[in-house]
Amino acid sequence: MSIYAESSETYWKERQKKPNKKSPFGIAGVVLLILLALAGSVLYVKNTRGSTPPSYGAITQRRSLLEATQSQWKECESRVDSRQECTSICLPERNSIQRKTMHQACLHGCQQAHVASTSLGCRGKADGSKTRQNTDLTEEDVFEVVGVLAYSHCAKFQGVDPKPDAFATCRKYHRAGTKQGFRMGKEAMKKVLDEEWAALKMEP
Q1: Count of domains forming the chain
Q2: Which residues form the domain of 183?
Q3: Where are the transmembrane segments (predicted)?
């Protein structure tokens, strides 16, 4: 047997006497790293699923009227059709003696007031007015803001025949439009806020 063969045989015998032992600490470290990675993944998924969308993060209860946003004001106002409502309010004037003039006076006065008071009903406040700023507007407040404009809104009918009936009719329905517009604005905004809150409660 050659010297190389003997050396090779000796080498393999020595290897068999020394089994390849892996450090238990090395295996434990690898297992620990795997477990930590899995735990981190689970926590990330839970936090992602349970997070609230940024746009709704600050809302934990239904908004009040005074907390409504500008976009909600616009949505509220768009839901109220002042022209259609005043057409209904002014139906009795279509049968009056001077029906064309009286009907026009009615529509004009009603719509001028209805649009303005609807906006107040949606917003719940009157910017720059002397009405209360931190409480909901009342019908009395609205008449102080819109009702006082009846004379100027109806001025175009002051010299129209039949005098003074046309002018009086315009002012009469200006008052009716003020009252109805405010009521419809408040109702429309209530629906807008209720719909937002219902949608939020459906969020996971």
Answers
A1: 1
A2: 69-202
A3: 25-45
Any domain includes 41: no
Give the chain's count of helices (H) and strands (E).
Answer: 8, 0
With contact defined as beta carbons under 8 Å apart, do 104 and 156 qualify? no
The number of CA neighbours under 13 Å toward the Cβ of 153 is 28
> Do you find a cis peptide bond into 162, omega within 30 degrees of 0?
yes
How many Å apart are CA 55 and CA 77, to the nearest integer? 22
In a domain, 139, yes or no: yes
| Amino acid residing at 85 | E
**Helices marked H in 18-81:** 24-50, 70-78
* In the block, residue with structure tokens 């068999």: 16
- Could you report the per-residue pLDDT of 98-142, keeping only the tens digit for each? 778 999 999 999 999 999 999 999 998 766 555 445 567 899 999
For residue 11, being part of any structural domain is answered with no
Report the predicted TM-score, pTM, of the whole model to 2 decimal places.
0.65
> Quick check: is 119 in a domain?
yes
For the chain, the maximum distance between any two Cα atoms, rounded to a whole number of angstroms, is 141
> 109 with 172: CB under 8 angstroms?
yes
